[in-house]
Amino acid sequence: MAAASRGLLARLRGLSLSAGGGPRLPLLPPSRLFSAEPFVSHSDDDGGGGGGRIIEARSGVMAPTSRRTGVIGVKCGMSAMWDKWGAKVPITVLWVDDNIVTQVKTTEKEGFFALQLGAGQKKEKHLTKPEVGHFRAQGVPLKRKLREFPVTEDALLPVGTTITVRHFVPGQFVDVTGITKGKGFANLAGHVRRADIIGHPVFCGALLVAKPMSRRITRQNLSIPHEDIVITQGVMKRHGFKGMPASHGASLSHRSGGSTGQRDAPGRVFKNRKMPGRMGGVQRTVKNVWVYQIDPARNLLYLKGQVPGPQGSFVFVKDSIFKKPDTALLPFPTYFTQEGEPEGLEPLIADLGDVDPFMAAD
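The line above is the sequence of Large ribosomal subunit protein uL3m; the predicted structure tokens follow.
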């Protein structure tokens, strides 16, 4: 059934219920008479932040099924730190740059519960008109990055709530999502003899791509009517192939990917075949990352190990799914700054226990 028909029938059914003494539906504009969306009354004084419900910023008790929001961080880079036992800990530093709630989504209006967070700052001239209108409608500052985090109903926060690094506690595990470093088309430019190219159209089992990249291989020193030649060998770098034999039994195919198909049956290359190609620049999630330290004064988050993305990129941090933190230790739905709390707080480090791991047991 068409959307217009569903909307018309729903409207007629609502009018019949209203005429029979039932609950009267709100009067809708003519543009909504043929809409298939549900008829839900939204108050005008909520600013589009909760679908008519009242959301208060207050602490609560986290249930086992509760789901908190995440945060948007900026990857500052990697370093190393030494814990109190003298062990070296690889550290990735994330900066939680002015995270605030920019929109609240509820089941009454959008059909699900979620919080949209904004991070950073951006000038109005660098934003599109729909983006500026969205921020003005919500009554929040202009933000550089937006991200939506699904939450449960008890974890909703009002629009304008600030999310700091105290949202997490040292010692818990988190999942970090980001865009990996873009490697481009995995290739290697090298010196090639003209006789090798003439004798082997597919030199070394790799692909000959016409790109003006390598200045070591030019059409002047090869005397061929083509652009600069780049030899791409991506299967060993991109997919971790072992490669062909390095000495006996292989001629100019040491880094080749080998056969890519069969003969007449099926007479094609199957999909998802691992071959040379573009590498990196995709979304990846690193799970179960340990929070080693937080710095409330500078809003820095210190994580053990590596996270996806280059320096300066945005990453999204949320509570771990597999290694769930202790609900009694987490601030729920987030950490609210108390009145009179000092600003220059010392960094908080995870509890490493009282047993020296380098001491041999008796």
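Note on the example: DSSP finds five helices and 15 strands in the chain. Residues 3-19 form the longest helix (17 residues).
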